Amino acid sequence: MPxxxxxxxxxxxxxxxxxxxxxxxxxxxxxxxxxxxxxGKVIARAAAENLTPTILECGGQNPALVDETANLVDxxxxxxxxxxxxxxxxxxxxxxxxVQKSVADEFVSLAKAALVDLYGKDPSKNPDFSxxxxxxxxxxxxxxxxxxxxxxxxxxDSARPLPGPDAPIPGDLGRPGDxxxxxxxxxxxxxxxxxx
Length: 196
Hints:
- By secondary structure, the protein is of the alpha/beta class.
- It has helices spanning 17-23, 37-49, 72-84, 104-119, 135-144, and strands at residues 31-34, 54-57, 63-66, 96-100, 150-153, 166-168, 184-188.
- The protein has 2 domains: 17-57, no CATH class; 63-188, Aldehyde Dehydrogenase, Chain A, domain 2.
- Mean pLDDT is 75; it is low at 166-181 and 189-196.
């Protein structure tokens, strides 16, 4: 960061949880946080003590909408990349895709091809395939995957923070947007509606 920012303006501080909690006791001008909801609540409480303005990006539900007029090759590639980048743990990661039924099978096929094209047959050997932050988070993500629904990937090792990519088959399948590399695909006939 010092290469691009004046350290007096922007500074990156790494440390333990205790060090971070002590840091939050200081009166900052502004706090910008991206991460888990649990940690966001800790930061919000600490910021309130000093009335410090904050922006908390704690994830969200970001559907990708794909209808029959879409460029399916482009859509599948971009959606897969978005779902896999940074371990699927970024605020704008597409948590699920609503795909028009008439193109769903083709979309799933193209998404599977995009996984291999972007990350290879063994993503763990690809330097562009991000690791999940901790073993605890890997185990949480593994617990969310229904092996009966996986059509690509599905391999995970909690000793290595790197679960493989997963793309469940189309249909109304489980909880959307669980904050990891798990792209859910739903089919829609004539219109798209919000669920849950």
